[in-house]
Amino acid sequence: MLLSDLLHERVVKMNVRSQTKEHAIEELIDLIIEAGDLPMSLRAHAIETIHEREKIIGTGMEHGVALPHGSTDRIDSIIGALGIAPAGVNFDSIDGEPATIIVLLLIPRKSFQEHIRAMAAIARVMREEANRTALLAAKTPAEITHIIEEIEERNG
Length: 156
Hints:
Layout: H1 3-6, E1 12-13, H2 21-34, H3 43-56, E2 65-66, E3 69-72, E4 79-89, E5 99-108, H4 112-126, H5 129-137, H6 141-154
Parallel strand pairs: 1-4, 2-5, 3-5
Antiparallel strand pairs: 4-5
Helix pairs in contact: 2-3
């Protein structure tokens, strides 16, 4: 699985304005709904699913990356979004740094292997500083998706 398989231009937001992780999650869920990848009828459920996961343990990683996610029986395939938050959002990260790159995932509960593959795909893209820097310097969603495709192509 590749991160580029999960994302398309309509689910990439260049300027996440939310200042809390709760609002950032809502902002990205709304983006997924606007893109037509999740029905409005599942909005509250999706938000609650991810907030419940955040209560268990924060999903802030290191180096300004957060991976808010949650599992649900109400979807059949992984749904994702990526947000760039120039001001940073506190996701209780391991290194204490605010998240400037937020990758949100909704994962079908029955798809544990897909969950692991998706997290690995994100890690492969986000682990190198040059990759994160390129994503933060991008100006458009198309540029973000192109950068991710290039990174994945280089990594084989």
